[in-house]
Amino acid sequence: MNFAEQQKTYGLRSVGSAAQAAQEAADRLGGESPSLANVIRNAATKVEQMSKDLEDQKIEDIVASVSSLARTEPVAFFGGSVIVGFMLSRLLKSGSGDFSRATANSRPRDLNHARDLNHG
Q: Basic and acidic residues compositional bias: what residue ranges (predicted)?
């Protein structure tokens, strides 16, 4: 698998994960605002289906489809870009936060161990 295909697979998995997170958020929101929860749920379902449909397409076909969408439906393309960008930024922020916490949690133990070695 070449680099572009690997990135496509990674990107589609990330989009799928974001769609699942949106579904879970819609489920939690359902009691408070059922109509908003339905809108989120429907959008997440469409995004998840789109990511599954794109798995079998070549990169060139995806680029051609996106280019066509941008020309024929610029408002939809822009709106979709904003949503995907927001979802990816949230996904990346949550991932970097986990890394920061894991790194911070490991530091005291490592420092204490090093201090014990120096004094022992």
A: 107-120
